[in-house]
Amino acid sequence: MINGKKENLICTKARTLNTLKPILKKSKIEDLFYFNFANWKNNLEKILDNIQDSFGKRLIVIRSSSINEDTETKSNAGQFESILNINPLNRKSIKEAVNKVFESYKNQKQENSFNQVLIQVQTRNILVSGVVFTRSLNHNSPYYVINYDDATGLSDSVTSGSITKTIKILKPRWKKNTPNKFKRLLFAIREIEKKFPNKGLDIEFAINKKEEVIIFQVRPITVKEPSKDIEILKRIQELQKKYFLLTKNNSRVNGERKIFADMPDWNPAEILGDNPGYLDYSLYDYIITKDPWHKARISQGYDAGKPSRLVYLFGNKPYVDAGVSFSSFIPLGLSKNLRDKLILFYLEKLRKNPHLQDKVEFEILYTCYDLTFNEISKELLEEGFSSSEVNELKKALINLTNNLVLDSKHSIKKDMNSLEEMKENRLKKKIKKTKDPTRDLLILSKDLLDGCKNHGTVQFSRLARLAFIGKIILKSLLNKKVINKDLYDSFMESITTVSTEFERDFRLLKKRAISKEKFIKKYYHLRPGTYDITSKRYESNIKLLKTSGQEEIKKEQNKKFKLPKEIEKDIDTPLKNEGLNFSARDLFKFIKDSLEAREKSKFEFTKNLSDAIELIAITGQELGFTREELSFLGVEELFFDFEDNKQLINFWQKTIANRRKLKAINNKLELPPIIDKAKSFEVIRYYSPKPNYITQKKVISKLIVLDKEIPDVSQIENKIVLLENGDPGYDWIFTRNPAGLITKYGGVASHMSIRCAEFGLPAAIGCGILFDLIKDKEKVILDCNLKKITPLVIK
Q: Is the pTM of this model over 0.85?
């Protein structure tokens, strides 16, 4: 109600702002003037006079205000032109700018005589600019979502794509939790919300040096799905209680404050995504993160303490217990006091540098000895460690590194033999035909998973650790400038993994040099989403392998790599001086062997996993359950001791119904990348991302987003692929000649980092919140040399 009259405030951008301008007290709207195309065409000179009279010498911005922009049903945000820094006394500049805005309507096929152009005073001295959503866009949940830029001082950072920061604040707790820099903003937003009852809003704003809140735009957001806010608040309180209970559990170090993060160590966000099915998480936990990971670490000379679960679910999202992870990287032989000091130091460093969570082995932890230790370890001295403690750590790391590298020929062979044993056992297993086929199917599935644990994932864990150590030492050679980036890239491209074989075999398949049956026999078990029962594996997902046989694959055979003699000597000397008892030649062989064995072992153990998942699906089908329904079950429900099928069906049905209801609520939660206090569930902070850039190349291309609904694979060619999380099931991407790859999750030595280095494909791995900010863009510049992603708007 305005002045006792009911008025629809949502109209064009210009009319909405004009209506709000006199009634807002906690924010301001810059002076404005607007007109439509018919006015402009018929009264051009008069309009120019009015602009000059209205704005004098103040710089103006000429903005779009289409009748199809910022309406109840559509936004078209950023589709039309806005021109800054126009002198209102320069009639020629005004005419050119206004015509450019009207032309942008025509270019987007939105011509209409009632389309408007909005003229406003240009806001100056901007400290923060951005956009506030009064409900989360995904599920209409009760959060204020603030996307902002506090670095550039630009007023158009929303549409220009320069925003890189986001904070989400639970609405029922906004007064208590809002950071000081945003308190005035949210008081202003609350005032605007009252003018639009029962509507979600998208509000573009700026805050100037006087701390005034300036409103540039108010538009509705259309979210069809209703939200029960009270359920969401109750669920958050339950998660906070869970956090408190886990924090109270005995930790290895007194005074340790629990930190849960979604990307360090085993990086569940990369492997499972941040909203996996419950079965995905449960399988991952059973074969890796419950205890196999710990057995592997103990066996390699780390003082990993007592067995502990590594990954926990909060809502639907899996998190690594950082304290458990970090304590497992302490080399054997350290004093208890030094061990405890290191763990607390690591946790505090992560807390201060959350953007390093996908790089903990490289930039937070000391997990092996490398050539930068003497320089980097100065941070320990600055944090109160004594020289003798640093030397104690140094000796332990040198001893551990020598043992692992020098024994690698034997240990890699031993672990690969164990994987071969797992393979032989799998091939021997057959589905028995008895009077109780359901039980037999489930027993066989569990046998495959247990074989995976005992002969697959422990071995894979060890091989992965060796690969990380090799990559850390190699990176230190680069950082010390013993080798250059060209040599580093050349060596990484020489690595020959299963992905290389897959690409080669796919080329042969295209040429009909091998049959589809032979190809499928080798790669049948792979699926996009290794742990996802709802994802088809290759043998049932033929569209991923569809080919006309006419396309050319650009990828050449892997380059041969030979370490130059002079470089070899440059590496041998510092290795020897630092007490490392292996040569440059030994080191490069170790890196190559461990990386290749790691990828081969992953390929092999996932066959057991994949077959076990299919047996679970077959069992479910026999009992009347879909794959989607089975995704709500966990290992405990699948393999519990049941009397008959009727009891099993009833138990599964109840479990599925309960988990489905809980997942529906969890889906509405906004969860942070790092949880280090109970308030983390109420104020969701996103750190500025630091992606891992692969190669030194630059590419400009359109984007294509891959999710569970994979598009026509032919559309991938020459496009930059956006993928939330990548695993071996997505290796088919490299057969389709993408221009580049951008992922939300992934680390320096992650699966996709190794793959992209191997193929020389420009990539940004582990972009975090930046991924969400660019995924709706049409085109980007991916510059790996400058370590930068720049969105482009196609007009």
A: yes
